[in-house]
Amino acid sequence: MRKEAVNADPPIPLPAALTGRSALLDGLRPVLGRGPSVVVITGEAGVGKSRLVRELLAGTRSSGTPTLAARCQEPDAPFPYAPIPYAPLIEALSRCRPRPEDLPPVTGALRGLLPELADLLPPAPPRADDPLAGQHRVLRALCALTASLGRVVLAVEDLQWADGSTAAFLHAIVADPPPELGLVLTARRHTLPHTGTEGGGGLPFPMRPPAHVVVAERHLAPLSVAETGVMAAGLLGARAVPEEFTDRLHRWTGGLPYVIEEVLREWPDSTTGVREPPLPASVRRVVVERLRHLPSDARRVVAAAAVLGDPAPVHLLGAVAGLAEQETRRALAAALKEGVVRAADGTYAFPYELARRAAYEAVTEPERPVLHLRAARALTRCTGPLPLVRVAEHYRCAGLGTQAVRCLEAAADRAARGGDAGTATDRYLDALRGGPSAVVRDRVALKLARVALNARTGPQVPAALREVLDRSSLGPGPSGEIRLLLGLLLRNQSGSGLEALEEIARAVPDLLAVSTGQAARALAIIAIPSLKGWPVGEHRRLLAEAERLLPQVDEEDLRSAVLANRATALALMGDPWAWDAVADLPEAITVEAAARVHANLAGAATALGHPERARAFQDRAWQAVRTNQAPYLEAFVETTDMLAAFTSGRWAGLLERAERAEEQYQDVPDFHAEALLVCGLLRLHTKGQTDVARRLLDRAVSTTALDTGIVLTSAAAAVVRVHLAADRPAQAVQAVEGVLHHVRRTGAWVWASALAPPAVQALIRDGRDGEAHRLVAELADGIARRDAPAARAALLTCRALLTTATGPQTGAGGSDALHVAAADAWAALERPYEAAYVREAWGLRLLAAGAAGGRTVLHEAIAAYQDIDAVWDVLRCQRGLREHGQVTVRRPGALGYGDHLSPRERAVARLASLGLSNREIARELVLSHRTVEHHVARALRKLGVSSRTEIGSQLGP
User: Fold this and answer.
1) How far apart are CA 592 and CA 453, in angstroms?
2) β 342-344/347-349 pair status
């Protein structure tokens, strides 16, 4: 039975293409076709030398050249020919069929070694008296037999195991090769020398061929990460494998093809979830076999390296192995020669992770805790930052849980001080999982609750905090603070809206018992309203309670937190005093608090219709985030910025940005919902993909936790428009009912600016005029005495839409005046989409009534939609023109004016040529400042000029 070798034939089919070796193979084939030639291929075990040789020989055979293959065996392998000199060569030559007339008499000396050729060989010569002479005769006979074969390629693999006679033959044949011989030799780079004359590159003899011999020496390196992915895809029958899986597969296997094959053979569903692979039995046997060949000290050093895991220097390996420096170096030299470890930059490590695992499993169970304890103590003596997490793991494996928890807590503290909330959260969780004492557990839980707010956590943190709370070992102060922070986590990150508010409310009594400031903070937090929360009146009551406690709060950080939440709550409610509350915010607040409050205020200002305030708050939020490594806050500011970009019509590149955010923020429900919302809205308006958009919007609605007035209303408004465009008014009404219920229940009418106009339109189209009028009245009452410009613009829009049901009206309160007022209001708020939407409704109303100007107004709406790339809306308007008998000059798909100025661009260019600024032009034409910027830039490009002063001469009459 042959012992398994790491470069033996692989057990699973190989990919048709030789991954990462095709160019090498193409370069070697011509070498074997040119006279006497020698190809030497070296590389570590499992790197693919045998596969390359098979491919090389197959190509040679296909061209008509015979091939012979031999493989040297390990000296102690249970192989029947191992004791016989020249065994690999005899095995290969036994398959040749030389012509008897080409065989010189000396080849008769091979009769005893090659009985298969006895009928072809000359008679055996007399037995030599001198054994050395006999051996030399056999050597000459083998060389002569090889030369008699003519054109042939002989491959001899694994020369690191070649016996002395085989090495002597190869030395002789390389020094004086037959004229038509092609020789292919393979060897491992790390070998023990057989003689003092061992050659380089792993060969057991010095290779000195004559000048006329063509020589090619190639070293096979492991596959790169990309090549590993290609090979894995081929073995799994897939077009590609995930990038993350490829990276880990390369780390596990070191890019060695044999190991890759073995892993994937035992793990066919590997890409369905990236986890640790099984350790193939064949890989384990190979590693254990190499360890068996090592001296005792080398095995001890290898065990130390397996326990340490990471690359380690000599002194660290010696400390864990219990060896002096010189002993450690000698041991490492032995391990290096066997290829068990690799050296890099003064450290030593295993060539791949699975080799380390195999070596670790070879360490006896009783020995492992001893080595781990030595590793922990040795690492604490190292210079530089203490690797606390590694030390903790070694203490854990040594059975010293208390020390492990202490190191994990210290590692988390260090990460928290450095602003790395995500890492700190992970380490505190690890400490809690380590089974600490009650005192340590409660202390760590409080630290975890505090830091996790700025990390993007999964469900593990709330579960861990609840487990600590359920033990009832905490005093009222820590219990109240943990419950408060747990509620915040549930509110901000876990998608548990009302549950979060109730958790925070339960914290207030405990907090009041120990800290008025903490209680006030909790009340101010749950005073922040949301569509899925309590009625706005209840939030106002809670805010009043927090304000009542505020004079008793002495701690500056708690006062700052209460004031920040007060400003946020008032802004979201549309309270006119909100901006005074913002002015009351202290200058000296933490970076985290600044990012959070300014992002909240930016979102509120965007929703309410204060674009300049929103930009100012957003700028301050970004400034704070850039100085702090807080993934949660970065996601918060980014999604707030994306919503502002959509609202203001800055849609260029926004879909790609939103799709990245959707992929990145899936662990934070509200941020994920906002990214899904923007993706859905842009898929609808810029792509016209109604089915895709509705799926994304449905996911946004189901994902959002509390929603401060954006996701539910905007998603419902978009779905209503889809139904109305398809002439399904009843379904449009149905789509809006659920969100209207939330608005009515909470009284949050200031957030109905996106929802109310399409809802009114749907009710009118469905013949429910009375309900439409009642909805408008509710909106008017709900935003009275509120600072909500967007809601007031929506109210104007709704009143304009109601004129569709009441018939033509003139005068200041007439239909035209209401539409103009609504469009102006939206333009002043830098809401180009809503302004175009009003003009679309107005133009269609005029066309339906047969009134003059309908076509012009609708074309203005089309131009406005084109400015923001709202393709779906342009097509809807063009369909409306056709339905009213208005033939458009351009086909529906041709949405632009090519190199000619559009009417809107011409109007803007005319005013620019007269010296008006962009803001003056915006006021004159009732456009947003950004829209004017876009028009001026396009006019300059189309006219071929570089400055505004040149426009007049190119514009014409």
Assistant:
1) 10
2) antiparallel
